[in-house]
Amino acid sequence: MPGENLTREEARERAALLSVDGYEVSLDVRSAVGGPEGDGPRTFRSVTTIRFRCNEPGASSFADLVAPGVTAVSLNGRDLDPGEVFDGSRILLEDLAADNELVVDAQCAYSRTGEGMHRFVDPEDGEVYLYTQYEPADSRRVFANFEQPDLKAPFRFEVRAPEGWTVWSNGVGEQHDGVWRFAETKPISTYITCVVAGPYHYVTDTYARELPDGTRLEIPLGALCRKGLARHFDADDVFLITKQGLDFFHEHFDYPYPFGKYDQAFVPEYNLGAMENPGLVTFREEYIFRGKVTQASYEARANVILHEMAHMWFGDLVTMVWWDDLWLKESFADFMGTFANVGATRFEDAWITFANRRKAWAYRADQLPSTHPITADIRDLQNAKLNFDGITYAKGASVLKQLVAYVGQDAFLEGARRYFKRHAYGNTRLGDLLAVLGETSGRDMGAWARSWLQTAGVNALTPQVLLDADGRIDELAVVQEAAESHPELRPHRVAVGLYRRSQVGALERYARAEVDVDGARTVVAELAGQDAPELVLVNDDDLTFCKIRFDDTSLATLREHLGALTDPLARALCWSALWNLTRDALLPAREFVDLVLRFGGRETDIGVLQMLHAWAQSALVHYVAPEWRAAAGTALAQGALAELRQAEPGSEHQLAWARFFAATASAPADLELLRGLLEGTEEIAGLDVDQELRWAFLEPLATYGAADEKVLAAELARDDTASGKRHQVRCLAARPSAAVKAQAWAQVVESDALSNALVEATIAGFERPSQRELLAPYAEKYFAAIGRVWRERSIQIGMDVVRGLFPALQDSPETLAATDAWLTAHEDAPPALRRLVLEARDDLARALRGQECDAAVGAA
């Protein structure tokens, strides 16, 4: 990997030695347009002036810069030889004075991997678009700096750009004589500085609010995207959510938004969902919808907008010292995104999505061999990059939801308010937050943190019900279990709900009790004497983070009456629990598939329904016994088609079932129906086959050899856009041909010509569950290639390749043994690489256990 892997110890030593007074960064990106692409990297000029202090005059340190070349380096007016002080990633700084000025004139490279200064050429009109993305440590690819979160400083940016372009940065900008100059920022970390430049489409608005002190706060708002997406851009809805969020956070945080303007840029080929750069938040442009989508997509976009907005306080105003405490921003933003979505927007049921989707990500991550405490042990930057995971985000947010139940919402929010005021523009550690929460709640936050933040693993909670002679509850207890590898039994604040069917057949709650579960077994005394339940739902209302288990009676009830459960959150929790049982090889995968077929059509929450579709596909690909895959696939496709035809014409449920049908279609008749819908010879009332749905229908046709290169080229001509190109690349790689697979492999593994977005699309097309035999030769090639790929490519591309091309579809003991052999032979491989392989191995072993469980049912 290019670039030096900064360690935590090096960062600590540098922070103890240096403090930064300010940056002036001058970028010249006129080279982004014109001229041939050439063989070498396309570069731009970057001149950085850093003013900083050293508390040990005469000491040595270093600045960070990853660049093809350095033209000049000056330290305190003394010219240094770039060849002697710059090694490709660091600039050696010797004999420092008490007050220092460093000037670095460098040639930095544009990126095609979404790291640093990403350059994108729009295939639709040839326009060039730039944006930066830095987290955790890629600002050093754009300007020289001290790349660690605790060396905050004010920044002044100026950018020379091609004629006709607009440039944005964190501060307000003005253009004069071709140079854009931006107002100085507040003290911020390097990784949240940002530049966006190009002929973007830009829309403006204003947010205004009267503050408690009688002053009026006005925040200029902006939203931008590529010109080619302007016709699809619903900026009014983006501004609506933005204003609702700003109102919500001002009401709850009692600290005015501190960074002036608030621009939101939707940019191409983005590796993340979004990034919280103060004053200039960047998002992946897929949040601009080119076709019809369900409300779940709008809810997800609103959640991301509010997540990034919460970062303005949690992360930007107050920042963690080092990446160990990444949760201090990401867990809070993940929690606050849903908290604000429910409290401020039209998405009042967002906690259902959180319970069903976000926590599924967390449950998986917390059972991997790489699981870690929420407050992690992050030794270096590569490790930090991988810790943007389900633990740091979704488990952390779940634990905060538990914390709110534990200390109370008022105490939680008052703690946040004190935290902002006490540490504004500074850096914090775990203890700083616990201190204010202890003040406001009166609770022992140390014991809570030890159990929830400083240990890993997920507990399972199972109800035990004993009935008396009259058929009433004599005793109801909750049994808590932990994995052997992570034996911590945590304190849980949970609600236990009792459900039974009404006279009309609805499965409804008739009793509920909240209780503190602590230890291996907790009796819920409040429910003694209640009528016998048909379903006991532990963690009703989703107050804690745990895997829900069922007693035999409850599981039997769900098998027959899951669709009769009227409360949508309770239903979502039951679906999630059943999926966890399937992943844990405690419920045969064919039973889960059958439940989706029987009850999925009755699911009212569109987000839950789409999650069920994803889980059913995962069950089919990974957990169903191989001998039953074909039958299960046929059943899912037939069920999806039946639901598609029965759905209300034009409804979002119809759209969801149409996409699921396309994802499961394989039989000739199903493929012919898809072809007919594309060509207009078939019609389903109310189903609008827009461009995005056309690509969804073309993908299975390409996968099964029913759409060739000519057909896909014609579709690209119809949709000659960046989005269309990604779709076409995925479909091309999906074709069932040995030559196609060889070409796709070479493009991703042997070449770095593809951009990050096209690497992702190629990998997605390459890995087709129906093509296991065709992909078999690549298992050995994978293990031979990943070490070299990790050394030679950027960390983002390395992660994409190692995760995306792992031979999970070769789900056999032999592949498991090959994985173990690689791990044994490469004990000295970079820890981040080993972590990725270990995670993939765990998924494979889990799949084999699931298949064994499913096969046992078939044999019986």
Report the mean per-residue pLDDT as an integer.
Answer: 96
Enumerate how many helices there are, as a single number. Answer: 28
Helix content, binned percent: 40-55%
Task: Please give the alpha-carbon distance between the first and last residues.
Answer: 51 Å
Indicate the structural class. Answer: alpha+beta
Question: Order of strands across the biggest sheet?
Answer: 5-4-7-2-1-10-13-12
Strand content: 15-25%
Give the low-pLDDT segments.
none
Number of strands: 28
Task: Return Rg in Å.
Answer: 28 Å
Shape verdict? globular
Summarize the structure.
The protein is an alpha+beta fold and 860 residues long. Helix content is 43%, strand content 20%.
Main attributes of the structure:
eight-stranded mixed beta sheet, single chain, 20% strand, alpha+beta, 860 residues, five-stranded mixed beta sheet
Could you explain how this protein is built, in words?
Helix 9 packs across helix 10 and helix 17 runs parallel beside helix 19. The protein has 860 residues and is α+β, with helices and mostly antiparallel strands. Strand 8 and strand 9 form a beta hairpin. It is 43% helix and 20% strand. It is globular and about 90 Å long. The model has no long low-confidence stretch (mean pLDDT 96). The strands form seven sheets. It has an eight-stranded mixed beta sheet. A five-stranded mixed beta sheet has the order 15-16-17-19-18, covered by helices on one side. It has a four-stranded antiparallel beta sheet with strand order 8-9-14-11, with no helix packed on it. It is built from 28 helices and 28 strands.
